[in-house]
Amino acid sequence: MPHPPNTPLGRFGVDTVTVDPARCVGSIPAGGVVNPLTGTPTLAVLAMLVDHIGGVVNHIRRGPSEWTVTSELVLELTPDAVDRVAEAPDEPVFATGRPFGPRTGTALSRCDLTHRDQLVGTATVRSFYIDAPDEHVPYPAATEDTTRPTDLAEMMAVRVGTAEGGAQLLHQLPDPVLNNTLGIVHGGVSAAALELVGAAAVNAGRTDELLQTASLRINFLRPLRTGPDSHYRGAARRVGRRSALSEAEAVDTDGRVAIMARLTAYR
Fold first, then answer.
1. CA geometry: angle at 118 spanning 220 and 96, to 5°?
2. pLDDT digit string (tens) for 160-217?
3. What is the CA radius of gyration of the chain?
4. Which residues form the Thioesterase domain (predicted)?
5. pLDDT tens, residue by residue, 211-234
6. pLDDT tens digits, residue range 71-123?
7. Run of H or E residues at 17
8. How far apart are CA 28 and CA 93, in angstroms?
9. Could you give the strand order of the β-sheet that contains 15-20, starting from the edge strand earlier in sequence?
10. Residue 144's pLDDT band (boundaries 50, 70, 90)?
11. What letter would DSSP give residue 185?
């Protein structure tokens, strides 16, 4: 089931294939996507797919008066993931999600990511259960000329900024299409942006032999609301010849850290 382009999932081209208590499947186009900070290939959009499929697995286990909020997302990629997707860029990446253990006040799901039936990654999504909201914010009305952008910066409504000390910066511009039904930036959008700034931070100054993202761990602390000062910032914590680590954060319009991430990369 393709999603309308006036929704976060539709903006990213996500297709939900199966929704079942035991197994959820979806896909996303990931080939030919480049990091706006570096101009190099990226699989950051897989964070959107994982957030969606892993979140759905947890969401359908909710009670009649419950809702789910993602608290953690972990993405692990194989060393050849970028190259494998680049070999057939028109083929989407699929995520197959399943429950991982019992649900209590929280739930955990696991996703396997495949491209042309070859494993390129695995991921987990942890959600906790809250009281179901009384109202949901509607998506903007779709029009006949509503189309899905293919440029990643336009797709995510981000603008490259400048920061001191070698940090990498993306401004998150307000765009109601990228909000979820709670009226905040969709978690998959933020997760993808944190990968972009984290990967750019460890590759700052490199022109070849780039470090490829191996793992991304994200903690959602509070809702991310956009405004003039909302942004994502990534900074390298250790960069070696063959491995590196960076930390990234999403900052809301009031200057509060809403989401934190840690990224490791290898060559």
1. 45
2. 998 887 799 999 999 999 999 999 999 999 999 999 999 999 999 887 889 999 999 9
3. 17
4. 183-258
5. 999 999 999 999 999 999 999 999
6. 999 999 999 999 999 999 999 999 999 999 999 999 999 999 999 999 999 99
7. strand 15-20
8. 6
9. 15-20, 23-28, 93-99, 106-115, 118-131, 66-77, 212-220, 257-266, 243-251, 231-239, 168-172, 158-161
10. low
11. B
Say which residue the tokens 């959600």 belong to: 127
pLDDT > 90 fraction of the chain, expressed in percent and rounded = 88
DSSP string covering 203-232: TTT--SSPPEEEEEEEEE-S----STT-EE
Residue of 143, 128, 137 lying closest to 70 (CA atoms): 128
Distance set, CA 216 to CA 75, 86, 124, 195, 262 (Å): 5, 20, 11, 7, 6
Cβ-proximal residues to 153 (8 Å cutoff; 6+ apart), any chain = 36, 159, 160
Nearest-angstrom CA–CA distance, 233 and 163: 8
